[in-house]
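Throughout our pipeline, every protein is held as a single compact record rather than as scattered files. Nothing more is needed to write down the fold, since each code stands for a local backbone conformation. For reference, a complete record is included directly beneath this paragraph.
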Amino acid sequence: MLIEVLTGAACAAAGVMAYGVRGRSARLFGRSVWRGPADRPALALTFDDGPSESTLELLALLDRHQVRATFFQCGQNVERLPAVAREVAARGHQIGNHSHSHPRFWLRSGRFLYQELARAQDTIEAATGARPTLFRAPCGTRWPGLAGAQQRLGLLGVMWTVLGRDWALPAEAIALRLIRGARNGAILCLHDGCEVRPQPDVRPMLEAAGRLIPELRARGFRFETVSELLCPTN
């Protein structure tokens, strides 16, 4: 009987831990959101892992459709392409923190997590003049110690309502996932880079974005940055 009780407790603890690490609505390891208010037809388009050599092409696409988005940037990529990071900010998009080197956070110390976030904060601010207030964990994976790092740096965690899986799917499937998952207050996640690799191939994402933006707008949705979505001014 005792063994069964202990086994059940261990399984429950493992389940709580797994939810805290990967659950999109989890707040166990830091204050976090995964959607905005559902009272109006607005959503946020977000891009992780940039900036990359393809980000300027994405910016041109967003300009054509008059869309403002949120870019969760890696410090190492900003160091490699500071002019591209500056252009993202100059065109009115919001920039968030996506860590410095895009490491896996599991089994890492609180000190390591803080240093990753703090270095990215400083790098992004030095390049763009904007100090992020939003943070998205690499791969959406949180870990003990992250809450303290976010609090010290004034960062709100942001997960997603729908993940495009644009690193693995063709453009049509990516667009379909996001269109099907779009709803009032949704936060949609795509990638304008691939971790901290140079010259990533993001052509499926670019094609998908070109398809889904006009379709979602035709359905009555307005595109906002994450901060605008969470705190509307009108």
Q: What stands out?
A: The radius of gyration is 18 Å. The chain has nine helices and nine strands. Confidence is low (pLDDT under 50) at residues 4-14.
